[in-house]
From TrEMBL:
Residues 1-103 form the FAD-binding FR-type domain. This is Siderophore-interacting protein. It comes from Aeromicrobium senzhongii. InterPro entries: FAD-bd_FR_type, FNR_nucleotide-bd, Riboflavin_synthase-like_b-brl, SIP_FAD-bd, SIP_fam, SIP_rossman_dom. GO terms for molecular function: oxidoreductase activity. The lineage of its organism: Bacteria, Bacillati, Actinomycetota, Actinomycetes, Propionibacteriales. It comes from the Bacteria.
Length: 248
């Protein structure tokens, strides 16, 4: 698809709006999930390199879609591409995929994540029905990294600031969720971000607080790992889950 325009959302978050003739091809496969993702394709000497990103929103009338990128200077592939993107540039991707969407029958919606999960959380709160009760805990560097998250839901939005600490500990998110007065009724939870959330927030929620079918948990990155290292680690985790136990 073709870059139509870019928007600076925060000091290290940039939105790229795409369109063009290929929009119709994408729309034919678009999913109702709010964590809809695509695989961005970046050519390299060793073949195509893929990066997974959330589709922030789709506007069928304007024939546009948006992808939000966290940028880290010259690190990685997708971030530098987004930082340099200009109208007329092209971006190839595969997909889409995704499954999660806020269930209107849930009594409360809980969202937990860092900057990497902001596009998916933003898309999810935007899909909440009018008055739907929701709470979001989002970790960012500081106040200047907070962005607007429009919603018709009754959303309590809690920004957690690292204030100079390195990203990736998940301590702020874990402490905030554990200190949160648990609401009455059925809670649906969306927990995405650094891989440590799988060992901190997830077990707390699954200890009788949230039914397994009502929790969406995914690691988007792993502290200290490159994208390729993270993908290898994630595959190991998936293989460990599906590998049958050895006979005793």
């Amino acid at each position: 698809m073709t870059v139509l325009r870019t928007e600076e959302l925060a000091p290290r978050m940039r939105r790229v709006v795409l369109g063009g003739p290929a929009f119709d091809e994408y729309l034919a496969s678009h999913l109702p999930a709010t964590d809809t993702y695509v695989k961005l394709v970046f050519p390299s000497q060793d073949g195509d390199v893929l990066r997974t990103y959330t589709v922030r929103w789709v506007d069928p009338q304007a024939r546009e879609l948006a992808i939000d990128f966290v940028t880290h200077g010259t690190e990685g592939l997708a971030g530098p591409w987004a930082a340099a993107a200009r109208p007329g540039d092209t971006l190839r991707f595969r997909g889409p995929g995704g499954a999660y969407r806020p269930d209107p029958t849930a009594d409360h919606h809980l969202f937990v994540g860092d900057e990497s999960a902001l596009p998916a959380i933003g898309a999810s709160v935007a899909a909440l029905e009018s008055g739907a009760a929701a709470t979001a805990f989002i970790e960012v560097d500081g106040p200047e990294h907070e962005i607007d998250l429009p919603t018709s839901g009754d959303l309590t939005l809690v920004w957690l600031h690292r204030d100079g600490d390195a990203p990736g500990s998940t301590r702020l998110l874990d402490d905030a969720v554990r200190a949160w007065p648990w609401p009455q009724g059925r809670v649906q939870a969306f927990v995405h971000g650094e891989s440590a959330l799988l060992k901190t927030v997830r077990p707390y929620l699954m200890d009788g607080r949230v039914d397994r079918k009502d929790i969406s948990v995914s690691a988007y990155w792993r502290c200290g790992e490159t994208e390729e290292g993270f993908r290898a680690w994630k595959k190991q985790q998936q293989d460990a889950v599906i590998r049958p136990a050895a006979p005793r």
